[in-house]
Amino acid sequence: MSRRKLSRLTQQLVFTGPTTILFALVVLIPFLLGIYYSMTNWNGVSRHLEFVGLSNYAHVLTADPEFRNAFWFTVRFTIVAVLVTNLLGFFLAYFLTKPLKSKNVLRTVFFMPNMIGGLLLGFIWQFIFVRGFAAIGQATGISFFKLPWLGNEPTAFWGIVIVFVWQYAGYLMVIYIASLGNVSKDVIESAQIDGATHGQILWKIIVPLVMPAVTVCLFLAISWSFKMFDLNLALTGGGPFNATRSVALDIYREAFTNSRLGLGTAKAVIFFVIVAIITAIQVRATKSREVEA
Q: What's the pTM?
């Protein structure tokens, strides 16, 4: 090996070696161990575990109605939460890029919920839904505030959606603001001179030019909503009657409450594969619609 090649190899080992080792210890090795544990009947405590092959996967896919119900709830929640969060984040960004005197204050206010931890945020909103809304409903007589927000399936579903959107719309707003700031004013002025309406400028010019931000925001929102755990645990705990149990919460309870870590890990691996496929399709679809200014 020449001296130059040895120097390059040394530089690579010095600069990327620690990162590679850390990545392997924190991500790669636990992931591979998780795949191995998913093929056992380990309870998470015992030193002895029995290798059962793919029987855990077969059980999850064919004989586990709780996982199917949790997955169906997670899919419905993801569709609604991703659409609403991105629409609200985009329109907040669109209006806060206008010449408003209070836009900096409003940007800070809308971003602040993202700085609060999910569990704490869930307990705060649980108090609002149970006590705050009830008090407002008694005082005003408005039926909206008298609904059993966390007491039945439809309202509990929308309660979780409201809190999720409230937490994450401000974060996506910041990304959209950065992207909208890069849209050329000359292009918009040319469209206005040609007689384009505000709606046509928004849909035909601005939206295609901010598609890279849309790709990122959709990816983040899909990832957040599929992995939603802390809000689910703090707000409803999966209730009423497991009607709002997400897949992440179902995996947690299977592994740590029911002490069936092997089966819970199998659910996690299946969930990982499904989310990876969905996000890959989303990124590919939105990347194909990106244009250059």
A: 0.90
pLDDT averaged per 10 residues, the chain (length 293): 77 85 91 94 87 93 93 96 96 90 90 87 92 91 89 92 95 94 86 84 88 94 94 91 93 92 95 94 88 62
Radius of gyration of the chain (CA): 24
Q: In whole angstroms, give the CA distance from residue 251 to residue 98.
A: 45
Q: How far is CA 230 from CA 2, 72, 114, 116, in A?
A: 55, 18, 13, 12
The first and second tokens of residue 6, run together, are 């040895």
- Residue of 283, 288, 239, 263 lying closest to 70 (CA atoms): 239
Q: Which two tokens stand for residue 55?
A: 């029987």
CA proximity to 267, closest of 119, 56, 36: 56
The residue among 163, 166, 145, 147 whose CA lies nearest residue 155 is 147
Residues 111, 171: contact at Cβ < 8 Å? yes
The overall longest dimension of the chain from CA atoms, in Å, is: 84
Write down the CATH number for the domain with range 55-287.
Answer: 1.10.3720.10
Quick one: tokens of 35? 């795949």
Spacing of C-alpha 244 from chain mean position: 16
Domain spans of the chain? 55-287
Q: Give the DSSP H or E segment for 155.
A: helix 153-180
pLDDT tens per residue across span 78-133: 999 999 999 999 999 999 988 888 888 999 999 999 988 888 899 999 999 999 99
- pLDDT at position 213 is 94
C-alpha 110/C-alpha 270 separation (Å) is 35
pLDDT of residue 45: 86
CA distances 77 to 72, 276, 293, Å, are 9, 17, 34
- Tokens at 85, concatenated: 């969060």
What angle, 0 to 180 degrees and rounded to 10, lies between the N-to-C axes of helices 261-287 and 29-37?
120
Long-range contacts of 198-205 (CB under 8 A, 24+ apart): 202/94
